[in-house]
């Protein structure tokens, strides 16, 4: 039944097509011409602003009309000493780690539950739905849902006789938890969809064969699903790192309506935005804002490399 | 069954890794730099190109430079299309264009208009006229020396009447943000704040409008459930309470002085301690609406306007914001912020107005527009349509904002909103004061803890600068 479980000895691997790896051949000159437009655009719109951001992070600058003063690593030092920044940093890490564990746990549960469901495409579309709605609209909806006196959640709890569980969901104590719940709700569908696509790719006969040999559901999951979707999982983990660190709109819109959200709900990108630009009363600390941007890039870079190393496995071909 | 895996080929693995990191860096850069325009000015122009200030236009001679070409005023406005002020200003713009032949190219950019202004200035695009509420506008453009003096506008005759601009705009208003005695901002709308209530509701509760702070707390307690409404997630609304109490106890400047004290010890002054204790009295009185600390704008003001709540501290725009859904017969009244024994009496003056950037290409035309707009009949739309107060005392106001207009009728001493702390120390305001103020206002910390924390946080803030 198993057609090929893929191990090709080195000699049978497909020949590489990469030009520069062929002995005695260098990259043809024409390649440079074809690469140039993309390279120039990339340099202009990605690399140059990134370099400018790094430079600005070493200065004190309020923007146009203000002369930038070189301050070395002062902005970084100041951030390090700033309790508000450390709290923002910790919140970002909490979203990344705690949120990540919950998002992937839920996504796997959905994946396994829906694997054999006949209407799984429909359900998949439903759980993916939060991703096609702008986060700002979602935040407004969550505001209505979690409102203290007339909110739908409290109203529902009261209606089913659980008044004792009603809370001021957006109060300072619970606010970050509400944000986490919102983010988990939004992104579970997204990652479940990616994982499901990976699982769908796995031929059913693996499950059938494993089932015939007496594998339990847990074993099916750990011995079939996980290994055969490892590459998808690895990419998803990288995507989550990026999503978790840069999440901005939902928090900004839920925390502040026409104003900056309270510092008690800031994550790194919100902190960056507020101190760099702010809303009604711009702080214009562009140096510090850029320093936060650089820190975020370094964080993402390190975490991605780390994840790739941790999750490095050979590709299973089937 | 056994699954066999192939180890990744090292060369390709590392190449992939490099590519992955590059792609990720690119995505994050895009996220940091491009998404939501959050850092666009940061990345749009490196400092080398922007450090050189734009050349200052010749204030009085530019109009004669190109008399043949129709002039265009590039106007960046804080209003969104459809807002009452936008409608009024659009009407003025239309008339101005047809009467003068000067074209006004306006961007209705909303409250974050400064982001667009910065982007335009960075790109070298013309910005001839900007309007916004004064504190952020002054902090971002006037205090950084990027605007021209509008002293010349004061002598300009207002088209259609015999007054000059200086005749109709009170000098006290212009002095607030003057630089070297010369105004850089000319207001077309003035705002204050106080405690709003429904007159008929208060009468039906048998409560007299309170005047002192103790009377206010007693009235709030007597008013029953959700007596004092607040959208607690708007931290600068929460800040009204403590800032007003500080100004009442210590006079204008007391908050400013405490915020700018490098040792932080000014926060321990008697006036401020009394103000903090007064706020704690309100928080502990039980008069605050249930769940006010988790109320998201505009929930509380909606509930207040339909009769679930009695008092609400807010700017004088509240009537304008809530009148479309207020309960039938709602009688808009406004209390000046309650007084305290032996305290100070001053009025908060907040202005929305115009500035002309140094980078303006048609500054004279922009100034013509300012003078033109301040005509009594034209400006009356701000009162009649937008239901807000104008700086002209000869423009009547609708009944729902009469109390607010009366605040300025007796020409009281004025102070800046939030005593100028928001405008002059925005980072301190955002990262030091507001978080602690929220904690105090939500009852998470007591008076002494607040004083201790803000004293040390203020000292730390200034020490790191």
Q: Do you know the CATH topology of the largest domain in chain B?
A: D-Maltodextrin-Binding Protein, domain 2
Count of distinct structural domains of chain A:
1
Query: Total number of helical segments of chain A?
Result: 13
CATH topology of chain A: MetI-like fold
Largest interface by residue count?
Answer: A-B, 92 and 87 residues
The portion of residues assigned to helices of chain B is: 40-55%
CATH superfamily of chain A: MetI-like
Explained architecture:
Chain A contains 13 helices and two strands. Chain A has 318 residues and is an all-alpha fold. In chain A, helix 3 runs antiparallel to helix 10 (230-246) and helix 10 (230-246) runs antiparallel to helix 13. Chain A has helices spanning 29-56, 74-81, 83-114, 120-128, 135-145, 152-159, 172-201, 204-212, 217-228, 230-246, 249-255, 268-276, 286-310; strands spanning 59-60, 69-70. Chain A has a single domain, classed as MetI-like (MetI-like fold, Orthogonal Bundle). In chain A, strand 1 (59-60) and strand 2 form a beta hairpin. Mean pLDDT of chain A is 87; it is low at 1-20. With 465 residues, chain B is α/β, with parallel strands linked by helices. Chain B folds into two domains: 66-191 and 350-415, D-Maltodextrin-Binding Protein, domain 2 (3-Layer(aba) Sandwich), CATH 3.40.190; 193-347 and 418-463, D-Maltodextrin-Binding Protein, domain 2 (3-Layer(aba) Sandwich). Chain B has helices at 10-33, 40-44, 47-51, 84-100, 113-122, 134-142, 151-154, 165-168, 171-175, 199-204, 213-222, 235-250, 254-259, 270-284, 299-305, 318-322, 363-373, 376-384, 402-409, 421-424, 426-441, 447-463; strands at residues 72-77, 103-108, 129-133, 186-191, 193-198, 228-229, 311-315, 332-335, 347-355, 414-416. In chain B, strands 1, 2, 3, 4, 9 and 10 form a six-stranded mixed β-sheet that branches. In chain B, helix 4 links the parallel strand 1 and strand 2 (103-108). In chain B, helix 12 crosses helix 14 and helix 12 (235-250) crosses helix 21 (426-441). The longest helix of chain B has 24 residues, at 10-33. The radius of gyration of chain B is 26 Å and the shape is globular.
């Amino acid at each position: 039944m198993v057609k090929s479980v893929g191990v090709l000895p080195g000699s049978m691997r497909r020949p590489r097509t990469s030009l520069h790896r062929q002995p005695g051949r260098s990259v043809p000159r024409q390649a440079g011409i074809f690469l140039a437009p993309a390279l120039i655009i990339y340099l202009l719109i990605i690399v140059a602003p990134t370099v400018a951001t790094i430079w600005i992070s070493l200065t004190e600058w309020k923007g146009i009309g203000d002369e930038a003063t070189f301050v070395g690593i002062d902005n970084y030092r100041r951030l390090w000493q700033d309790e508000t920044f450390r709290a923002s940093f910790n919140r970002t890490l909490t979203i990344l780690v705690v949120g990540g564990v919950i998002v992937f746990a839920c996504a796997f549960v959905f994946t396994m539950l829906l694997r054999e469901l006949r209407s799984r495409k429909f359900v998949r579309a439903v759980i993916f739905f939060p991703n096609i709605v702008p986060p700002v609209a979602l935040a407004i909806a969550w505001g209505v849902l979690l409102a203290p006196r007339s909110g739908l959640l409290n109203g529902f709890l009261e209606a089913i006789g659980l008044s004792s569980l009603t809370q001021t969901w957006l109060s300072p104590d619970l606010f970050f938890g509400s944000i986490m719940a919102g983010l988990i709700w939004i992104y579970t569908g997204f990652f479940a969809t990616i994982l499901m696509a990976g699982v769908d790719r796995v031929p059913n006969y693996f499950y059938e064969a494993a089932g015939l040999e007496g594998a339990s559901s847990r074993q099916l999951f750990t011995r079939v699903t996980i290994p055969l979707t490892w590459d998808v999982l690895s990419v998803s983990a990288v995507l989550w790192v990026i999503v978790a660190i840069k999440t901005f709109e939902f928090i900004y819109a839920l925390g502040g309506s026409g104003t900056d959200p309270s510092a008690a709900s800031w994550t790194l990108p919100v902190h960056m935005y507020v101190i760099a630009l702010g809303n009604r009363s711009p702080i214009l600390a562009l140096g510090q804002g850029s320093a936060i941007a650089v820190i975020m890039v370094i964080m993402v870079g390190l975490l991605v490399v780390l994840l790739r190393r941790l999750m490095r496995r050979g590709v299973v071909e089937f | 069954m056994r699954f066999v895996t192939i180890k990744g080929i090292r060369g390709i693995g590392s190449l992939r890794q490099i590519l992955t990191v590059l792609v990720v860096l690119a995505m994050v850069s895009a996220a940091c730099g491009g998404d939501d325009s959050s850092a666009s000015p940061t990345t749009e122009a490196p400092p080398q190109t922007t450090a050189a200030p734009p050349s200052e236009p010749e204030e009085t001679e530019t109009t004669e430079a190109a008399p043949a070409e129709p002039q265009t005023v590039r106007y960046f406005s804080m209003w969104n299309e459809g807002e009452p002020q936008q409608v009024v200003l659009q009407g003025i713009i239309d008339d101005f264009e047809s009467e003068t032949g000067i074209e006004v190219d306006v961007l209705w950019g909303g409250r974050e208009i400064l982001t667009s202004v910065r982007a335009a200035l960075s790109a070298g695009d013309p910005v001839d006229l900007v309007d916004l509420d004064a504190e952020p506008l002054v902090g971002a453009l006037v205090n950084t020396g990027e605007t021209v003096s509008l002293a010349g506008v004061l002598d300009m005759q207002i088209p259609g009447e015999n007054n000059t601009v200086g005749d109709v705009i009170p000098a006290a208003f212009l002095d607030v943000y003057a630089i070297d005695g010369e105004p850089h901002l000319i207001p077309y709308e003035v705002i204050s704040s106080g405690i709003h209530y429904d007159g008929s509701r208060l009468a039906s509760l048998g409560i007299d409008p309170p005047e002192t702070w103790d009377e206010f707390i007693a009235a709030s307690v007597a008013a029953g459930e959700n007596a004092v409404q607040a959208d607690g997630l708007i931290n600068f609304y929460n800040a009204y309470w403590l800032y007003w109490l500080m100004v009442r106890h210590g006079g204008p400047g007391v908050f400013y002085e405490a915020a700018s004290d490098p040792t932080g010890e000014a926060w321990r002054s008697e006036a401020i301690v009394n103000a903090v204790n007064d706020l704690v009295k309100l928080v502990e009185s039980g008069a605050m609406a249930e769940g006010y600390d988790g109320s998201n704008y505009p929930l509380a003001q909606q509930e207040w306007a339909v009769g679930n709540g009695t008092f609400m501290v807010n700017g004088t725009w509240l009537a304008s914001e809530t009148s479309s859904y207020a309960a039938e017969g709602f009688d808009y009244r406004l209390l000046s912020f309650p007084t305290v024994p032996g305290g100070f009496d001053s009025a908060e003056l907040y202005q929305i107005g115009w500035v002309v950037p140094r980078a303006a290409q048609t500054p004279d035309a922009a100034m013509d527009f300012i003078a033109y707009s301040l005509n009594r009949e034209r400006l009356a739309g701000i009162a009649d349509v937008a239901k807000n107060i104008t700086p002209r005392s000869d423009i009547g106001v609708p009944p729902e904002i009469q109390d607010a207009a009366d605040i300025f009728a007796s020409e009281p001493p004025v102070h800046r909103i939030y005593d100028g702390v928001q405008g002059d120390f925005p980072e301190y305001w955002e990262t030091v004061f507001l978080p602690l103020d929220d904690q105090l206002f939500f009852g998470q910390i007591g008076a002494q803890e607040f004083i201790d924390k803000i004293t040390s946080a203020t000292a730390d803030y200034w020490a790191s600068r």
